[in-house]
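ok so for the tutorial part 2 we go from a plain amino acid sequence to predicted structure tokens. step 1 is just haveing the sequence, like this:
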Amino acid sequence: MKEVLKDFETKSNGGTENLDTIETQSNILIKNALFIRNKGNLVKVKFEDILWMKGDGNYTTLVTRTNVFSLRNILKEFEAVLPDQDFIRIHKSYLVRIDEINTINPRELKVCNDLVPVGRTYYQNLINGINKLGSGNLD
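step 2 — the prediction. this is what the tokens look like for a chain of 139 residues:
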């Protein structure tokens, strides 16, 4: 596998950041959670406990089942770490856990008891990825 990666590295732009990232990800001990800094401690947050996230410049608000954290990381960093099959970007500033979505309309969706806005460009992708029954014209 490393030979393939090194071959990819030499045929790409010559940087080594791709190889380092892949090797680092394979060395992670806890694969179903991430640790965030909160009041001087590293707090384990399981992926299954994350409901949604809101990006605001260099900060991200992470909402879990029990807590809300304000973190100095951009939303794109979380998007890269979270499992693609469990989370979806529904707005330029929002990521949500797919299985926690309760209702959807063209302007917002309900995640647990919170209303989260849906961006126009992300709405069609969301609608195409779900099973629909009935004759309602949401799309």
